[in-house]
Amino acid sequence: xxxxxxxxxxxxxxxxxxxxxxxxxxxxxxxxxxxxxxxxxxxxxxxxxxxxxxxxxxxxxxxxxxxxxxxxxxxxxxxxxxxxxxxxxxxxxxxxxxxxxxxxxxxxxxxxxxxxxxxxxxxxxxxxxxxxxxxxxxxxxxxxxx
Length: 146
Ligand code: RB5
What we know:
alpha/beta; Ribose 5-phosphate Isomerase B, Chain: A
């Protein structure tokens, strides 16, 4: 039996409702969810939350991560500063599948002001259901790490 995948979820203040709904959706699919907030809509700084989620993966406390800010860009850049982390912003289902299949990304970033909730949840599903294909893609991913 395969272990339940642990998913860390975080955001800045741009849309904590979307983040909470993603967390509910992911939990309903049977994943173990760690929603690390923030829990209020008070203005905050996306690097804090992107890096906190990325650290959970870097330390082995989570397998995959989903992060949200207004565009998805700032929080993605912040997560990618944590050594070993590969995070991509996706606004479409195909890219969400491919960042797992070809890039072995552990983290998905979403722009709450870019995609609606229905599309965001489809993107989340594509990301979580895809598997890394390895082979020639592993060679390339190793090259990213230097
Ligand atoms: C916050 O207003 C906004 O700048 C942030 O959520 C994000 O879009 C940054 O990349």
